[in-house]
Please model this.
Amino acid sequence: MEAIRNDFSGPPADAAAAVKAASRTASASGLEGVIAAETRLGEVDGERGHLVIAGHDVERLAGQITFEDVVSLLAGGTVGDLATRGAIAEGRVLAFARVPGLGDALSRASGMDALRAATAHLDESFATPARLAGAVAVFAAAWARGRKGHSPIAPDPSLSHAADYLRMIDGEAPSAAREQALDAYLVTVSDHGMNASTFAARVVT
Model:
């Protein structure tokens, strides 16, 4: 989904020349002006405090659209796409069926370690962003409940993603205010394609 391109005029004559060229560039300006990637998913301008997601200012999205809507936008769709909402809900249902076969994945002390271990059990049927998003919510909720000694709660595909996630954690339907607050949060952090750790991985590997 993101087209990576090299920003070099041509290959150096040999490896030594490449090292010298890279050293000169780094000494002169670090990574200033170096193009690491091209993406339509998001833009972060730290100096101006500007965040754009899928071509829209985040201020116009957070609190105005749902998580399902922003997933649709990031995938090239539109706001209000019922197919995306259905796919995310389907991902929750399918993931819950996998929970008994996750072994000790969700017993890890770290939530991130648990999610990495659990998602490693998923197959190609979760290859779409929407289904994967649904699956992660189920595993996160199951992990949170397990930390308190409670059993996982099955998802309700009729609910919004935010509402169902909160319900799977708490065991009861959330208030409208909590649902809207989580939706707004999920929208603002939906694109991490060029965050610090991802950027480091792009330029180092």
